[in-house]
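Morning run. Coffee first, then this:
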Amino acid sequence: MSGDPFDEGGGSLLRQPKAVWATAGASVVAFMGIGLVDPILPSIAKGLEATPSQVSLLFTSYFLITAVAMLVTGFVSSRIGGRKTLLLGLALVVIFAGLSGSSHSVGELVGFRAGWGLGNALFVSTALAVIVGAAAGGSAAAILLYESALGLGMACGPLLGAVLGDASWRFPFFGTAALMAIGFLAITAFLKEQPRPARKTSLLDPVKALGHGGLASAAVSAFFYNYAFFTVLAFTPFVLNMSPYRSGAVFFAWGVLLAVFSVLIAPRLQERFGSLRVLGASLVLMAVDLVVLGYGDHMVAIACTVVSGAFTGVNNTVYTELALGVSDAPRPVASAGYNFVRWFAAAAAPFLAPKIEEWADIHVPFLVAAFAALVGAAIVGVRRGSLTTEAEELLPVPAEAAA
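And here it is:
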C-alpha cells in the first residue's frame, strides 16, 4: 500500500470525473443520515411524548429494512442498471426524509424511517460499484474515496443534526431531504449509465454466498460487533442527556476519529500486525471502553464515547476487507450477504438497550454490549483458519466501507 493514501494506483485520489464526485457527495449525505438523529433523540422523545425505547425504534426500523433490502439491491441494480438504482434510492430518501420531518407521532416517524432505510440501502450498496466503474486511478483509489465519504458522512451527520435540531427536531429531516435532492440532480446531470453485469443477480445469491465458512464467520462476528457499535450510537445520547449542540459536538468528534482510523490508521496497523490481530485487539479494547463508559461519571462517558470512534473505524475497515476477500463470491454478492447478517444487530441494539435499562439499570446495556464485542473477538480467534486469506497479507486490499 502506498504511504500516501491520496496517491493510489498511480494517480491522485482527488483527480476524478464529475460523475465520481457527484456520487461520492451524495454518499456523504447518505451516510450522514445514520447519525443525523443522534443529537436530537431526546428532543424527538420530548416533542412526540415518547419513551427512549420508542424513539430508539427509529434505528431499528431503519436498519431492519436495510438488512432485508440487501437481498434486493443486487437483484434490482443488475436489471435496471447502477444509475437508475442510485436515482431510485435517492428519490425514496428524499420522500421519506421529508415525511419524517412532518410526522405527528412516533409511530409515523418509525414507519417513515423504514422507507428511508430502503432508499438508503439501494443507494449505498450501489454507490461503491458505480464509483469503481467511473473513477480514475484504479479501484483502490475509488474504494478509498468511498471510505472517505463514509467517514465524512458519519462525522458530519451528528453536527448537522445538532445545528438544525437546536431550532426544531424536524429541521434535520427536511435538511437531509434537500441535500439528497441536490444529490439526485447532480447524479442525473453528471453520471452516465454504467455497464450492467454479464450475469443477473438472484435474490438468493447473497444467502448462498454465506455457505462459505470464512464469509459466514466474518458476518457472524460482525453481527456481535455491530450490536456493540449501535449501542453506543443509539443509546448513549440518552445517557449523556445533553443539548443538541453538545451532543452533536461529542458525536462529531466520534465521527472524526472513525474517519481517521478507518482511512489512515487501520491500513498501517494491518501492514504491521496483520488484519486478524488488529481486529481482535480492537474488539477487546472496545469492550473495555464500553465497560468504563457504562460505569464512569459524565465526563468519562463523554471521553469513552469519543474514543469508541477509533475502534469503530478500525473494525469497519477490517471487517469489510474480510467480507470482500475471504470467499470466492463476487464482491457485490459477498458484501450483500455480509451486510444482510450484520445489519440485523444494528436493528436489535437500539431496541434492546433501553429495554435492558428498564429491566435492570443504566450500566447493564453497556456490559451486554461489551460482552457482544468480546464474542466477536472470540469468533475471530476460533475461526482464524477460515478467515486467513487476504486478511493476513501484509498489503491488504483497501476495503469497501460499511454501507
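Residues 101 and 173 are 5 Å apart (CA to CA). Good start to the day.
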